[in-house]
Design goal:
The complex is a heterodimer of chains A (about 260) and B (about 240). Chain A has 2 domains: about 1-55; about 55-255, no CATH class. Chain A is about 75% helix and about 0% strand. Chain A has helices at about 5-10, 10-20, 30-55, 60-75, 85-105, 115-145, 150-155, 160-185, 195-200, 205-235, 250-255. The longest helix of chain A is centred in the middle third of the chain and has 32 residues, at about 115-145. Helices cover about 35% and strands about 25% of the residues of chain B. Chain B has helices spanning about 45-55, 75-85, 100-105, 115-125, 140-155, 170-190, 200-205, 230-240, and strands spanning about 5-20, 20-30, 35-40, 60-65, 70, 85, 160-165, 190-195, 210-215, 215-220. Chain B starts with 6 loop residues before the first strand and ends with a helix. In chain B, helix 3 runs parallel beside helix 5. Chain B is an alpha/beta fold and about 240 residues long. The chains are: A mainly alpha (about 260), B alpha/beta (about 240). The interface between A and B is medium-sized, with 18 and 25 residues. Chain B: Keywords: ATP-binding, Nucleotide-binding, Transport. Chain B: InterPro entries: AAA+_ATPase (IPR003593), ABC_transporter-like_ATP-bd (IPR003439), ABC_transporter-like_CS (IPR017871), P-loop_NTPase (IPR027417), PstB-like (IPR005670).
Chain lengths: ~260, ~240
């Protein structure tokens, strides 16, 4: 695709701007900013990827992955700001998911150990883990806040912090992973996954594209469940002190005022 | 007034504040073992906070709490909470049946509550055994309160902290509970601390009483002090001029 053809794609940006102006939706500024950002970010990534692929140096691959992990952590940590040490818990989770998935892929020779495979797959895994951790943290903090009475009841009867928070923890893990599992049930029926569509459009054999997509789907499933469960079990102890007392949850409005 | 008894809980210069607001100020005193002590006072006096401290759900900012001659922090928290049971006014339930709630203290220890024992507990608090498998959602406020008391008794605590447990009950149920608590106190020698806003109840059921106001202990002594308080603020509270 040439840059001239691509510039024609801007028609799809003009449509929402015109609609927003006509209907007084007030979305023009955000639409323009989103468009400019996506152009700059994606082009930059494209050039960086080209450089990394050409150099094939392990250091650049690791740097790219670290960058992804830092960006994902930065994005997700706001949602878990009430949990002490959330930044490192997120980093540990993303690093573990990355090592686990790449370890299996490369260890069993499922994908070749080249930047062309490692980087896009890592991007999908870490990106998915980020979304999952945001979903989990959102749900977990609100479950904990809403059920403080139940947690204290269990503690007051001689239960441990783990027993006191167990129901909220399991509910939050389930709730955050359900969208991933549910979307897999209808995949291919309602929409073709983006990666597969891209491959088909780029001229790949559809069956091979499906095989790759299946691999990604299964990886995403692992990433989803591992992210929520690991983050959950890393997070809950910081809600209690060594006397098994529940620490005061800093509510979102309090966090904003500090 | 000087009273001689074996203290089971002793507090000395206990302070507690929440986000910088003092809730308990220099609380010093003790509760006698095997007796019933009532805590009375207007709302916001810090009575419930005092209970939460004794059950180990919170720790004081300063001061010392001794339970059975041992500093509270030397106890394993789970062991302490089983020994010092608490039933709160809110009567929080976990979702599920009455039986699930009654067996909670034991299931937390990996044990099971025998059905016969569950029925016995229900009868003790004046509830019909038919309720055993009913969902707690379908219970009235009073029934929930009774289940909450029965649940606290499952651990057979040495000290029982009761926070306004009869405030949502009718007169007959209130008497049932007073009778039951009196029986538990006599039969097992359980020490009872009972927060109540009902001064008549404090006089009839309590051996001793603490009058608390704005985070301070104003007067302590035998329950009869409520009939002839010395402190002006207590007199006003008893007359009903303060709430």
């Amino acid at each position: 695709m040439s840059y001239l053809t691509l510039s024609l794609a801007l028609i799809f940006v003009l449509i929402p701007i015109i609609l927003s102006k006509t209907l007084h939706l007030g979305l023009e500024k955000d639409t323009v900013s989103a468009t400019v950002r996506s152009i700059i970010q994606l082009l930059a990534v494209g050039y960086i990827l080209q450089f990394v692929f050409d150099s094939e140096h392990i250091i650049y691959i690791i740097l790219m992955i670290l960058l992804m992990i830092i960006a994902a952590t930065q994005n997700a940590r706001k949602k878990g700001a009430s949990i002490k040490g959330i930044t490192w818990k997120l980093v540990a989770t993303y690093v573990f998911v990355e090592i686990l998935t790449q370890g299996i892929l490369l260890g069993f020779n499922i994908t070749p150990a080249t930047a062309q495979y490692i980087i896009p797959i890592s991007g999908m895994m870490i990106g998915n883990s980020m979304v999952l951790s945001i979903l989990f943290l959102n749900r977990f903090t609100s479950e904990v806040e809403a059920n403080q009475d139940e947690t204290e009841l269990i503690l007051s009867l001689g239960g441990t912090p783990k027993q006191a928070i167990h129901r909220q923890l399991i509910t939050s893990i389930q709730a955050s992973t359900i969208p991933t599992i549910e979307s897999q049930k209808t995949i291919g029926l309602v929409q073709l996954p983006g990666m597969m569509s891209g491959q088909i459009m780029a001229g790949a054999d559809p069956v091979q594209a499906v095989q790759f997509q299946l691999l990604i789907l299964f990886l995403l499933l692992t990433a989803a469940v591992v992210t929520s469960a690991m983050l959950g079990f890393l997070s809950y102890p910081s809600l209690f002190n060594e006397r098994m007392q529940m620490l005061k949850i800093r509510r979102k409005d309090e966090l904003n005022s500090h | 007034m000087t009273i001689t008894y074996n203290p089971i809980i002793e507090l000395s210069n206990v302070n507690f504040s929440d986000r910088g607001v003092p809730i308990l100020k220099n609380i010093t005193g003790s509760f006698p073992e095997g007796r019933i002590t009532t805590l009375v006072g207007p709302s916001g006096a810090g009575k419930t906070t005092l209970f939460r401290l004794c059950n180990g759900l919170i720790s004081p900012d300063s001061g010392e709490i001794i339970i059975k001659e041992k500093a509270i922090e030397t106890y394993d928290p789970t062991e302490l909470r089983r020994k010092v049971g608490i039933a709160l006014q809110s009567a929080t339930m976990i979702s599920g049946s009455v039986y699930k709630n009654l067996s909670l203290p034991l299931s937390l220890q990996g044990k099971q509550l025998a059905k016969e024992r569950a029925i016995e507990l229900l009868n003790d608090v004046g509830l019909d055994e038919e309720l055993l498998h009913r969902n707690v959602k379908d219970l009235s406020g009073g029934q929930r309160q009774k289940v909450s008391i029965a649940r606290t008794l499952v651990n057979q605590p040495k000290v029982l902290l009761l926070d306004e447990i009869t405030s949502s009950l009718d007169r007959v149920s209130q008497q049932d509970i007073e009778e039951l608590i009196g029986k538990v106190n006599k039969k097992y020698g359980t020490t009872i601390l009972w927060i109540t806003h009902n001064l008549e109840q404090a006089l009839t059921i309590g051996d001793y009483t603490w009058v608390m106001m704005a985070g301070e202990v104003i007067e302590t002594g035998e329950s009869s002090l409520l009939n002839h308080p010395t402190d002006e603020r207590v007199k006003r509270f008893i007359r009903g001029d303060m709430e």
